[in-house]
Amino acid sequence: MFGSLLVLIPISIFLVVVIGISFWWAIFAGQFEDTGNAADSILLDDDSTASPAGTERPPDT
After folding, report:
1. What percentage of the chain has pLDDT greater than the value 70?
2. DSSP string covering 4-43, please?
3. Could you list the residue ranges that cross the membrane (predicted)?
């Protein structure tokens, strides 16, 4: 009954430590710096579909 706990508890502690180290690295590596530009970039994208001069196609009929 308690045999599975003896396996699962050390595995879960190991995973918590690995996730904590990964999060700590991400903070100090600058992964969360300037999050506003990434969110705004999709709004500022040029969605025009105009073709360059001389390459217009006739509309599909």
Report:
1. 74
2. HHHHHHHHHHHHHHHHHHHHHHHHHTTTTS-HHHHHHHTT
3. 6-27
